Amino acid sequence: MKKIIRFSKAFIFCSILSVLVIASGIFAIATKGFNFGIDFRPGLVEEIKIAPAEIELTYSGSANVAVQISSQAVSLVVSGVGADNSTYSFSFVDYPTVADLANGFNTVPEVTSKLLSDGTKASNGVLLNSEKTSSLSTEPLYLHLVDKSVVSASVEDMREIFSVIPDSQVKKIGNDVDDNFQIRVGDDGTDPAISEKIQNQISEILAENFGANNYVVVKTDFIAAQFSSSLVTSSAILVILTLALIWVYATIRFKWDFALGAILAIIHDALIMVTFIAWTQMEFDSLTVAAILTIIGYSINDTVVVLDRVRENIKLLKVKNIKELLDISQSEMLSRTIITTVTTMLATVSLFVFTTGSMKNFALALIVGMLSGVYSTIYIAGAFIALARRNWKPSAEEKKSQVKEIELED
Question: What's the CA gap between 289 and 239, in Å, rounded?
C-alpha cells in the first residue's frame, strides 16, 4: 500500500504557527503600514523621458499649424482662416533620419525647421513634450529623441534630485534603452492648486538638472484623495465578494464544514500574502490585488480536489476517525498537488527572474501564495475539518458502501 503520511499529527502545531505569523502581519501593518503604490495613494503622477531636443520648429504665418506624431509619421496639419486646410505627412520610411525629417518640414510654407544635432539618428521615436502646446507659432516648438550619449540619468540620480519634494517617489519604467521615469508626489488634500504647483516644481527641477529642452513629459495624471480612497474600498469589497461567492459554491458542492474549511484555507493564504507584503514593504498596487485574487482562485482549486477525495474515501474506506481519513486522502493527492504547484511555479519563477518593477512583485506575491496554498490545503482546511468532525462516525449508508479497511500505524 502507498505510504500514508500522518499530516494530522501537525494540525495543532501548524494552526498555532499560522496564527502567530498572521498576528505578526497585523503588527507589521499597525506599526509600518503598507507601502501603497501609485494606484492607492492620492497625488500627481507624471511620466517623463530624458530626451534632448533634435529639431526646432517655428511658424510665421497666420493659419493654425498643429504637429501630430503617430507610429508611422509626423504630420503638420494646417487649418484656419485663409489656409488651404492641408496635411503634410512625413513618414519615417520616406524620411528615415532626423536630418531628412528637418529638411522635409522646411518644404511646408512659412514653417522653419532647425536641426539641433548631427541629424544622423533614426527619425522614428521622435517625441513632443505634452507639457507644451503642439501648435506652431513664432515661439519654438521642439521635437525630442532619446540620446543617452547627450544626456542620461539613472533612477538613483532621479531620486536624489527629487528628494527636495516631500512625499515624492521615483521609479524607472519601460526598458533599459529609454530613460523613462515615473514621478509621484503625494497630495494631502489641503491645497486645491497642488496639481499645478507640483507640475511646475517638477519642470523646474528637470530644467535645472538636465536643461530646459532635454526632457519631455509623456503624460500626467492626478489621483484625487477621494478617488484613491474609493479604489482601496473597492478592492477590499472585491476580495470579500470573491470569498463569499466561493463559499456559496463550496457549500453547494460539499457540506458546511468542508466549505468553511476551504474558505478558512484561502483566507489564510490571502492573510499570509498580506503579512509578507507588510513585512517586506513590497509596493501594494492593483497588481498586488490581482495576485491575491489569483491565489484565492488557485488555492480553492487545490482544496476542492483534496476535499473531493475525502468525500469519496468516506464512502469507500473503513477508518477509525476523521483524522485517519484526512491523512489517507491528503497522502493520495500529495503527488498531484506537488506536480501542479511546481509546474505552475516554473512560469511564475520565470516572471520573477526575467521581469522588473510591478510585474516582479506580482510574481513574488504569487510564489508566496502558491506555497501557502499547498500548506493551507493540508494543515488549515484539514485541521478545521478534523475539529468540526472530531466525533464523526460513518452513517449506516456510508458503512454499506465502505469496502476497504485501512489500519494506520501510530
Answer: 8
What pTM was computed for the model?
0.64
Instruction: Give the pLDDT confidence score for residue 1 in this predicted structure.
Output: 47
Task: State the residue range of the domain holding 395.
Answer: 7-40+227-405
Which residues are CB-neighbours of 298 under 8 A, at least 6 positions away?
A: 344, 369, 370, 373
Query: What's the CA gap between 186 and 194, in Å, rounded?
Result: 10
- Give a yes or no: residue 410 inside a domain: no
Residues 145 and 261 in one domain: no
Q: Give me the CATH number covering residue 353.
A: 1.20.1640.10
Q: Please give the backbone phi and psi of residue 371, each rounded to the nearest 5 degrees, phi first.
A: -65, -40
pLDDT of res. 7: 86
Residue listed under C-alpha cell 501537525: 10
Backbone angles phi, psi at 169, to 5 degrees: -130, 140
Query: In this structure, what is the dihedral angle of CA atoms 343, 344, 349, 355, given to the nearest 10 degrees?
Result: 130
- Cell reading at 182: 515615473
Contacts 24+ apart (CB under 8 A), 74-77: 74/101, 74/123, 74/126, 74/143, 76/105, 76/108, 76/111, 76/136
Residue 1 lies in a domain: no
Residues 52 and 199 in one domain: yes
Largest CA distance in the chain: 98
Task: Write out pLDDT tens, residues 254-282.
Answer: 778 888 888 899 899 999 999 999 998 88
Residues 92, 204, single domain; the answer is: yes
Collapsed DSSP state (helix, strand, coil) of residue 44: strand
Same domain, 195 and 154: yes
217 and 356 share one domain? no
Count of domains for the chain = 2
Assess whether 177 and 282 both reside in one domain: no
Reply yes or no on whether the pLDDT at 400 is more than 80: no
User: What grid cell was written down for 247?
Assistant: 463559499
Per the DSSP assignment, residues forming a β-bridge with 219 are: 47
